[in-house]
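Usage

Read records sequentially. Each one opens with the input sequence:
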Amino acid sequence: MSDNPNVTSTSHSYYEWQISTLMLAYDVIQPLGRTDDSKLAEREQNVKEELREMVHTVLPPSYLDNPKSDFPPEVVALLTRHTLKRAQEIIAGGK
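and closes with the structure output:
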């Protein structure tokens, strides 16, 4: 998502929110020191991959096929629900 130069700043901010939300959820169950750069980078990379997989599972094919299109509110709400559900699953200890 954010690697695409055509992504709007709003989309980028939303993607960063998704990353932060899941990173914080993982911090609840397995805190990392803020100076442990290698483990933080590894966790962030894992979260980005998890989000990529989630988006490819959840997003309607018409949006996957056209990454330049803006998401309507109902698609953003869908992604938000799935992101928050995943954060809750992480905190609850589920996979």
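Summary fields computed downstream for this record:
- Residues 9-91 form one domain.
- The two ends are 23 Å apart (CA to CA).
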